[in-house]
Amino acid sequence: MKVSFADIQKARELLKDIICPTEMSHSISASNLLKSEVYLKFENTQRTGSFKFRGAYNKISNLTADEKARGVVASSAGNHAQGVALSAKLAGVKSTIVMPETASISKASATRDYGANVVLKGEIYDEAFEHAQKLEKEHGYTFVHPYQDPYVIAGQGTIGIEILEKVPDLDTVIVPIGGGGLISGVALAVKAINPKIRVIGVQSDRSPGMAHLYNKQPLSQIKRAATIADGIAIKNPSQVMLDSFISKYVDQVVTVSDDEIAEAIVFLMERAKTVAEGSGAAAMAAAMSRGLDLGKKTCVIISGGNIDLNIVSKIIDRGQILRGRLCELSVIVDDLPGNLSRLTQAIASQKANILEVRHDRVSKGLSLRETRIDFVLETTSIEHVERIKRALEETGAKVIQST
């Protein structure tokens, strides 16, 4: 497969009056944390909530009249679905989108709202992809691939041009990887403009196929990639994308955990005042947790913001725990009057806020004269949590669990 920088420039001209020229702003908080001048590229504010609209619109706009008349079909965990649905609507083309049964309700609803016929099939993206190919053959639809397509890659590559227009002397760009369309287009574009720029790709460690291919590691068999980064959860990595683009233009590929992604989502909410979904925050997670060689100036692509509100509170709580801003502590003490008061006074002496308290006198392992007390505390740091634990132990309590 071939895509040239001229193809990306052509896509830029086509998209200029259609897409949002998303903001790229300097983050003081991220710069202080990472010891590099960090710029955030907010593709989570793009139309449909992610970068996917760029590639989908470029692809559908370049279809022949016959291809448009037959209608389009696509498979997606959510963001490509919305990009194709809106692009098809703008072009007056009928669209059918196959999404995994596990796709978030918000993404499926948004796709329908853009006018697409949504079909739910399979547990993971790869199964939805297979069903979309089946529908293509049965109904004669035109298939719009989410990443392995020259027009899609060229459309995503327009982000690379925008980035260097803002900061031409950039040293590093960090990009999430699912199927590889975004990083292929961005890497091709920035390397064409400045070959010295380092491009770092990021995958979820729950679906690390492309990272394993890139780093020449054995591929693991994954039935279902349960991750908060569902937008980049691809079971079977594409050798074509690796050979044609990623191995040529990408300098490093790393993986991040769900916990690290959750921490990045909370950081972006608190410091950048922006909402990122799991896949959208993956690049930020790598920047925060992998000790990468970033150089003097770095761009982190926040690729999407279509987060399911049902899991936002869980992600925030998990991120707060990892940062020491929220703490769950369990202690065992003698079941005597006044002990709870002594414990709460010890916590108060460390200036922590008690959010929840629960007594347990019947759990296995407790003697008849013991009680377990579980606390949920609002804290300020990991060090603060350790001071609280020491204060509780000084009262005679045994700290048995903390998160």
Automatic annotation (TrEMBL):
Keyword Amino-acid biosynthesis assigned to the entry: answer is yes
Q: Which UniProt keywords apply?
A: Amino-acid biosynthesis, Branched-chain amino acid biosynthesis, Isoleucine biosynthesis, Lyase, Pyridoxal phosphate
| GO molecular function per UniProt | L-serine ammonia-lyase activity; pyridoxal phosphate binding; threonine deaminase activity
Pathway terms, separated by semicolons: Amino-acid biosynthesis; L-isoleucine biosynthesis; 2-oxobutanoate from L-threonine: step 1/1
Which InterPro entries does its entry note? ACT-like_dom_sf, ACT_dom, ACT_ThrD-II-like, Ser/Thr_Dehydratase, Ser/Thr_deHydtase_PyrdxlP-BS, Thr_deHydtase_catblc, TrpB-like_PALP, TrpB-like_PALP_sf
EC assignment: the record states 4.3.1.19
Database matches in Pfam families: PALP
Question: NCBIfam families under this entry?
Answer: ilvA_1Cterm
Record bears the keyword Lyase:
yes
Q: Which residues cross the membrane?
A: none
Q: Which CDD domains match?
A: ACT_ThrD-II-like, Thr-dehyd
The record's family statement is:
Belongs to the serine/threonine dehydratase family.
The protein's organism comes out as Bdellovibrio bacteriovorus (strain ATCC 15356 / DSM 50701 / NCIMB 9529 / HD100)
- Describe the location of the ACT domain by residue ranges: 328-403
Q: Which cofactor(s) are needed, names only?
A: pyridoxal 5'-phosphate
Q: What is this protein called?
A: Threonine ammonia-lyase
GO-annotated biological processes: isoleucine biosynthetic process; L-serine catabolic process; L-threonine catabolic process
Which reactions is this enzyme annotated as catalysing? Answer: L-serine = pyruvate + NH4(+)
Gene3D superfamilies listed in its UniProt record: 3.30.70.260, 3.40.50.1100
- Which of the seven top EC classes does this enzyme belong to? lyase
